[in-house]
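hey m, so remember when u said the tokens were messed up on ur end? i reran from scratch. heres the input so u can diff it against urs
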Amino acid sequence: MRTRAGSKRRPALDPRSFEGVLDALTGELRARWYSQPLLKQARNVLLRFFAYLRGRRVRDLRAVTEAHVIAYARQIAEARTAKGTRYSVSTQRSYLMLVQRLFRFLESHGAILDDPTRDLVLPSWRKLPRAVLNQSHARKLVACPDAATVRGKRDRAVLELLYGVAIRVGECERLDLRDFDRGRGLLHIRQGKGRKDRVVPVVGQAAVALGVYLDESRPELVKDPRESALFLTAWGRRFGVKRIQDLVRMSAKAVGLDIRVTPHTLRHAPAPGRCECPRGAAAPRPLQRPDDGDLHQGRAQGACRRHGEGPPSRADLEETAEAAAAVKSGPWRPRPSASRCPRPLLFP
């Protein structure tokens, strides 16, 4: 039998070896760039499912039926956590989705003939809208740390970065000194969601607070000159995710907010300046509400106007449109450099 040149045959899976199947599944998830927390969760959940099967004297995954899966779903719904409470609906759903992924993986590799989870109905719930911070709440929370102390300057920079740049808490933890280009006002986010890198602008009060932290606070916190982390604890170590979460929660409690605030809540809070570009790039003026007040002065202004340049005129916009039409209709030509404001840049 002739096969395609260079093709690789998938290794055969033994449905009787639970650990071998689990290693193969996690290996495929790792090859698809899944995060380490998800891989750890998948291993823990499936090991618990395998223990349930062994308790039912099921030693072969080919012998698993729909009745086994339904009984396991009922066991999860009735189980208790270490605190004595039942598992939430979202937790039950995530556990059963991992079991579904396991059997779909086996079916795609030809290890089983029928998927016992094909007709499984996952638990669902009506999710209430999440709490969203308005700008007055965000003003109080960001201004909570004492800017006269070393730790207060660090905390202020962390909160300004979470709110003004809208980065994730894990991305904030992984920031290094080399990731911040202070001269150009750019922040390089490495290994973000989906393990993708991106570049974001740091402007306004976020840039000011970060500069104050680098000049006055970080030199006092650093213990080892070889430490590359951007944000440091009082012991000179990297400022971790748990500490950032505690900082946001304690700041919200200190200012009297009666809603649950997390670092991701700050990411979704309205900030009138996130779309600004650093020096040398034109950007559209962001929307500004009448009640913005003096919140983050400079962030609500366009980048061109902030650096002494006026907004692009109608002639500049028409010239940009003509250049774009010429590129679409004919061979590529360099754009004329007669415009007084540079072409807008896109920052993901």
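this time it looks ok to me. The longest helix spans residues 36-55. if urs says something different then somethings off w ur setup not the seq
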